[in-house]
Each structure stands twice: as C-alpha cells, then as structure tokens.
Design brief:
Blueprint (H helix, E strand, L loop, with lengths): L5 H9 L8 H30 L14 H4 L11 H17 L9 H10 L9 H11 L7 H17 L13 H11 L7 E3 L6 H10 L6 H8 L2 E4 L3 H13 L7 E2 L17 E6 L9 H4 L11 H12 E12 H5 L3 H13 L1 E7 L13 E7 L14 E6 L21 H7 L5 E2 L5 E7 H6 L19 H30 L7
Parallel strand pairs: 1-2, 1-4, 2-3, 4-5, 6-8
Antiparallel strand pairs: 5-7, 6-7, 8-10, 9-10
C-alpha cells in the first residue's frame, strides 16, 4: 500500500489523545511501534533462514508479546482495543521488554530489544485511538520491497520532524550533506565507518547506501553487516537509529546507547579505532567535570564539540579518514584548549580540506555557521618536519543560483555540492569578482603563524543598502500593496469555503 501520507494520519489520530503533548512525544510513540513491527519482519527472515538450515529460531520476545500475536487486527472482533489494549501494553509489554534477561552471550540482534525499550515511554491514554494507530502501521508491509523503499522516504520525514521538536534538531543532519561527506571519504567494504554521536543514524545510513553497490559475494555481505559503529546516549534518536538500520538490512545494528565522552582517552585500544569517521558533534553546549577529566589536561575544553574533536583523533586508525562538522567558533577560537587541539591536528594528522558551509544549512532551526573539516591519519607527502599536514585548502560553498538561503521548502540537495566535487579533483585558488577569496591554499607554516586561525575564505558581509527617502517610501508602498493583495485573496477563499459574503461599506 502507498505510505506517503501515513505519518500525517498517525499524527492526526494522536493529536486527539490526552496523553500526548507535543511532537517529540508523538514521534516517540510512533517509533517504538515502528520498531516492533520492523523487528517482527526481521524475525520472519531469521526464522526462514533457520528453517532452511534445519535449525530452530527462538525469539528473545515472549511469544505473546511478539507484534504478530497482539497487534494484528484480523477483523474478527477479537483484536485488543480500548482498556484491554492499554492494560496489556502498560502492564505486560513494556515491563517485560524493559526487564528482558540480557547477558554477554546474548546476540546483539536480540539484546537491542531491551536496550531500545529501557528508556521508552507509552504516552497514549485512549485505547481505541491506540488501536487505530496500530492498524495504520500494519498497513505497511516491511517485507515488500516497494513499501520498504517508500517508508525509507517517510522515515526521512520523521527525522526532519525532529528538528521542530524542541532541542531535537541536533539529531538530524541533512541527507544531502551526509551523502556528500561520505562520497568524499569513499569508504570500502572491509572498513568500519564510525559516528560517536550517531543521532538518528544519518551518516551511518549514507555509508551503508554507499557500500551496498560494492557487495558481490557472500563474504561481501558479511563485511557489509559489520561495516558501521555508532554511539548515541539520548533514548529517542537511539531508537530511531536502530530502526533506521534495521530498515537498511543491518541485522544486528552496532549502535551503543552510551556517552561517548565517558571513557578515558588513554583506555582506548587499537581494537576501538575505526577506518572512517563521519560526525556532526553537538555544539554550543558544555560538559561536566567528570567527562573533561577523561581527556589530557591541555585538551580539557568546556565546549562539548572540542572534546569530540579530541575523541575523533584518538579513535581514528592509522591511514584512516575523518570528516567532522564544526561551528565557526572552532575555526577562530584561540583559547588554550582550542589552540592545543588545532595544533595537534596539524602536527599529528593531515588536515587537507576545510569546507565553509552557508549559515542556512540547518535552517530554519538554527543559523549557526558550520564547516566540514576533512583530515587523514597519515603524513602528507613532503610535509615539514614535526608536521603531518603540508597544506590546507579552504573552499567556501556559496548558495546555489536562485537561493537566498536554504529552508524547509527549499532544502539543500546533493546537486548543490557539485561545484565542490568538481573543485575537489582539480583544486585551484579562486578570487570572486568582488575581490573575496572563495578558495585558497595555506601551508602549515602559514597556519601556525596565524596562531591556527582557520577562519579563512569567509563569507562576504552583506552591506545594507540605504535608499534615498523617495525610493525607500516607494518600496514600502509596494510591499504593503503586495501584502494587502495576499490577505484579500486569503479572506476571499475563506468566505467561499464558509459560503458567506461580507461587504464593507
């Protein structure tokens, strides 16, 4: 069945329920049900494989609590609904899944059920409305390739809705940006792609989409299953990411529900490192003293994004590649910790590219200006003594033609990155007609002489045009006339709908 309006239908029903308050709760309510439905479909695949190999499959979920045995409405009048449904979910389903017995021997594919439900809530108070929600979810056939593909698009919509759900906007990075970054990192089967603030799994799913065409053999398929590593400490994005990866055919999503900053940097071993890192760490926040104490003294910044940059450097394998989204403050900051971090980056890594992003990349939810730092854990050819970086290229991504800024209705698309990709393979310094630097190369010596000020190839400041009084008034009158026209048009449409006509003297 077509699922293009499924989320809207679900939201309309849940808005009638007194137990749900706001978009974040609606999303959480939807997604735990999506998870159980998707997981049940995955279990059908495991059951089929086990039967084929003459083995027995045993679900970690008690039989009575499996989605197929309580959620499906056979239209025979026996489906759980109303108070009976609420009692079952609140007093049997949730307590049991939260209390599942998990050991170190429990397969990852089964352990995720308890991990997902540990911090989840069931908000709905109307059992009839809850039944309606479940029935709509059951319209999606996750074992049907077309429905599964279409739901992938719907799921993107759910992730975007997070941006307007309070502070949840930090969880979602535009798909076009994650796809572009992964393309430039070029992961290969056999490598592990890591994201230690994985949110809803945007970078990880972009990596999986990039790796999937590389699968040619059964062994390639095994490597694909082991190709990503995520960490996320907030319950809702963690749930979303697990479901997202199940939808991408990852049977045992290797995403941990934990605080990535909660481990001492000195405790990381070689087995904790990964080949490729793609991340958009949270910025603008601060961390506690306990987390800072896990870092060497010179790197103990008060800003969370700085600490994540250090973490990345500790967890990137030799010859590994990384791309990290950072705010402008990291580029021009010269306090002790920032300077130490940037100096380490130039000395111990090859910081080869910095892409300046327009301020509206994450619009309308934040206007914080951001950048992408690309660096490798290798020594650049002919780099100076004591430095692995030889030179760093800066490139300013200007708004595409016809765009003043990105928005909900005019989001960033992958084709907007095409100029960067063309420049990437044929690098040259670019001076725009107005004399501003769009692209420039700095040697490591030049950057050190600038005290590691990476705030280069800036966006030109827009100068306010001061019109003569007559032109200014004429402009105001034009804008008012246009606005009056739109208001009159809207009022006219409302009158038509209501079947009334109001005449003003």
């Amino acid at each position: 069945m077509a699922v293009n309006n499924i989320v809207k239908r679900l939201q309309n029903i849940m808005r009638q329920d007194a137990g749900i308050n706001g978009d974040a709760q609606r999303i959480e309510q939807m997604v735990w049900m999506f998870f159980l439905k998707v997981y049940d479909t995955q279990e059908e695949t495991w059951e089929y494989k086990a039967k084929k190999e003459k083995q027995t499959f045993e679900s970690i979920i008690p039989d009575k609590l499996r989605w197929r045995n309580w959620a499906v409405d056979e239209k025979d009048g026996n489906a759980l609904t109303g108070e009976s449904l609420l009692f079952f979910i609140n007093n049997e389903l949730f307590p049991t899944l939260k209390g599942l017995d998990i050991t170190h021997e429990t397969p990852r594919s089964k352990a995720i059920v308890k991990e997902v439900f540990e911090d989840l809530n069931q908000y709905m108070k109307n059992g009839v409305l809850l039944r309606q929600v479940i029935n709509i979810i059951n319209e999606i056939e996750f074992d049907d390739a077309e429905d599964r593909h279409m739901f992938g698009d719907i799921y993107e919509g759910i992730l975007k809705d997070l941006q307007s759900a309070g502070n949840a906007g930090e969880f979602y990075t535009p798909r076009a940006l994650t796809d572009f970054i992964i393309q430039q990192l070029n992961p290969q089967l056999g490598e592990i792609v890591g994201d230690f603030t994985s949110g809803t799994g945007g970078f990880l799913t972009s990596a999986l989409n990039y790796l999937a065409p590389q699968i040619q053999t059964t062994n390639d398929g095994r490597l694909f299953q082991q190709s990503i590593l995520g960490q996320e400490w907030k319950p809702l994005p963690y749930l979303l990411s697990i479901t997202n990866l199940l939808l991408h055919n990852i049977e045992a999503p290797n995403i941990r529900h934990c605080d990535s900053l909660g481990i001492k940097m000195s405790d990381f071993k070689e087995c904790d490192k990964v080949n490729v890192i793609a991340m958009n760490p949270p910025y603008g926040g601060s961390t506690d003293i306990a987390a800072k104490s896990n870092f060497p003294m010179e790197f103990r910044s008060s800003e969370t994004s700085d600490l994540f940059m250090v973490l990345i450097m500790y967890r990137l394998k030799a010859d590994g590649r990384a791309a990290v989204i950072v705010p402008d403050g990291f580029l021009f900051g010269v306090d002790g910790a920032k300077l130490a971090i940037k100096t380490k980056m130039l000395r111990d890594f090859n910081l080869h590219t910095i892409i300046r992003l327009p301020g509206s990349i994450f619009s309308p939810y934040t206007s914080i200006a951001t950048n992408v730092l690309f660096f490798n854990n290798e020594k650049a050819e002919n780099s100076a003594d004591n430095y692995k970086t030889k030179e760093t290229w800066f490139y300013r991504m200007d708004m595409p033609e016809g765009y003043k800024h990105f928005s909900k209705t005019k989001p960033m698309r992958l084709e907007h990155c095409q100029p960067i990709m063309e420049w990437w393979n044929d690098r040259k310094e670019i001076i725009t007609e107005d004399g501003n630097e769009k692209s420039r190369c700095f040697t490591v010596e030049e950057l050190m002489a600038l005290d590691c000020n990476f705030d280069q190839c800036k966006f030109p400041k827009e100068e306010e045009v001061i019109l003569p009084p007559a032109e200014l008034l004429a402009d105001y009158f034009k804008k008012r006339a246009a606005l009056d026209h739109e208001i009159d048009k809207t009022l006219s449409e409302i009158q038509k709908i209501l079947g009334i006509e109001i005449k003003l003297d």
